[in-house]
Design goal:
Elements (H helix, E strand, L loop, with lengths): L6 E4 L3 H14 L3 E4 L11 E3 L6 E3 L6 E3 L2 H7 L12 E5 L2 E4 L4 H8 L5 H11 L11 H9 L1 H16 L29 E3 L5 H8 L5 E4 L4 H4 L9 E3 L3 H4 L9 E11 L9 E4 L8 E4 L14 E10 L8 E2 L3 H21 L1 E3 L1 H5 L5 H22 L10
Parallel strand pairs: 1-2, 1-10, 2-9, 6-12, 10-16
Antiparallel strand pairs: 3-4, 5-8, 6-7, 11-14, 11-15, 12-13, 13-14
Helix pairs in contact: 1-12, 5-6
The structure holds flavin-adenine dinucleotide and uridine-5'-diphosphate (UDP).
Flavin-adenine dinucleotide (FAD) binds next to helix 1, helix 8, helix 11 and helix 12.
Length: about 400
């Protein structure tokens, strides 16, 4: 039965849950969430590994960070955060380097200690081969920023594996920020707030859905039940945008990742949570060791869970993970944006989230975007019947 709801939300990821929570708690509206998978939470979902109890992120490692105070205060209503700070190391040949590129990496790579000024001078000389503003592809852009030796060791192989393409054929816009830090700072994120949910992602996601006005139906694909939902019911759709319109403007392409899971018979496999494997000969891009996300927890001392990540193009049955910025995809997105606007006007359907906008969104961005969509569009519609504005850039 699909009657009697003020709002239908398709998808229980962070975007959908934020909208549902606000409508239920703030406006007292009755919300129905439909979720295709057998669990809530979208890609941030995590679960204990059955053998070791170690929390694993089933759809890839998720690190929470934000500089948005409103988002930080909002998420803290549902969970406490640990003081985890993310750091990544990079393995090249038989060495492991401190990443992102910093003074420790430069000293180790060139086998000599440098002052910050000396390192700056060295990289300036090595990167003079190309002018950044004149770079024609990813390779030239990267060399213009970090120089050829660091490019060949840390960027070429990794990028080729991640995108299955020679960096010479990739757009220079994939690499916008490739910081070289002329100090020993190796924190991965620059954001004001960072941490991991103390009791795990799933406890946080479940807490968001706890309100008595929210009902979640799992294992339900919206397209199987759509005809039973009363016409005009306000709907927030966070599934794939192209699927909603029957791929009428073409299919988007995506990158996906295969996670190869292994329980290793040691209490510590690599000494840290993430090691990138930058050599092209190694088939995976990185190894995640989940126990290191929660050093405060009491995990078994003789076993550890690792995921090796393999990146490839997504087939139709695969999980779509990363949008691919090509002219073809941008063109399709423009066409779907027009369709989405009309759908909002005529059928009260609003599109949001990562799949619903074909945009890579971090968690804090999905939540922030949902909070704005709620304030500016959904709440005015639910309270005063204001028409839903369907532009995709909430
Ligand atoms: P999703 O979480 O994808 O939720 C969409 C939901 O809709 C899914 O549950 C899906 O099953 C459901 N659905 C789709 N179609 C239908 C349908 N027809 N009927 C019913 N339900 C449907 N962010 C960070 O901040 N830090 C990180 O470290 C980080 N790492 C990431 C690593 C990977 C590999 C990926 C892919 C993403 C990562 N993210 C990270 C991004 C994060 O996952 C997203 O910000 C977040 O998932 C966005 O939430 P969403 O609600 O938009 O989409
Ligand atoms: N990159 C690289 N070497 C690395 C890590 C990243 O060359 O060790 C490049 C690569 O082209 C990648 C891009 O930087 O696609 C962005 O990487 P990041 O790790 O920020 O992306 P994520 O996979 O976390 O979304």
């Amino acid at each position: 039965d699909f009657a009697g709801y003020d709002l239908v939300v398709v998808g229980s990821g962070f975007f959908g849950l934020t909208v549902a929570e606000r409508a239920a708690a703030e406006l007292g509206k009755k919300v129905l969430i439909l979720e295709r998978r057998s669990h809530l939470g979208g890609n941030a979902y995590s679960e204990p590994d059955p053998e070791t109890g170690i929390e694993v992120h089933k759809y890839g490692a998720h690190l929470f960070h934000t500089s948005n105070k409103r988002v930080w205060e909002y998420v803290n209503r549902f969970t406490e955060f640990t003081n985890y700070q993310h750091r990544v190391f990079a393995r090249v040949k038989d060495q492991v380097y401190s990443f992102p590129m910093n003074l420790a990496l430069i000293n180790q790579f060139f086998g000599k200690s440098h002052t910050p000024d000396e390192a700056r001078e060295l990289i300036a000389k090595q990167s003079s081969e190309f002018e950044t503003s004149a770079a024609q592809n990813l390779e030239e852009k990267a060399i213009s920023l970090v120089g050829r030796p660091l490019y060949e060791a840390f960027i070429r192989g990794y990028t080729a594996k991640q995108w299955e393409n020679d960096p010479k054929n990739l757009g220079e816009n994939i690499i916008t920020r490739l910081p070289v830090r002329y100090n020993f700072d190796n924190r991965y994120f620059n954001d004001t707030y960072e941490g991991l949910p103390v009791n795990g992602y799933t406890a946080w996601l479940e807490k968001m859905a706890e309100h008595e006005n929210i009902e979640i139906r799992l294992n339900v694909d919206y397209f199987d039940v759509r005809e039973h939902i009363p016409a005009g019911t306000p709907t927030v759709y966070t599934g794939p945008l192209d699927r909603y319109f029957g791929y009428s403007a073409g299919r988007f392409t995506w990158r996906t990742v295969d996670f190869e899971s292994e329980v290793a018979e040691t209490g510590d496999f690599q000494g840290t949570s993430v090691v990138n494997y930058n050599d092209q000969e190694v088939p995976y891009t990185r190894i995640i060791e989940f126990r290191h996300f929660h050093p405060e927890r009491d995990y078994p001392k003789d076993k550890t869970v690792i995921f090796r990540e393999y990146s490839r193009f997504a087939g139709e049955e695969d999980e779509p993970y990363y949008p691919i910025n090509t002219p073809e995809n941008r063109e399709k997105l423009e066409a779907y944006r027009e369709l989405a606007k009309a759908e909002a006007r005529e059928k009260n359907v609003l599109f949001g989230g990562r799949l619903g906008t074909y945009k890579y969104l971090d968690m804090h961005m999905a939540i922030g975007s949902a909070l704005s969509a709620f304030d500016n569009k959904i709440a005015p519609h639910l309270t005063d019947g204001a028409p839903l504005d369907g532009s995709l850039d909430a």
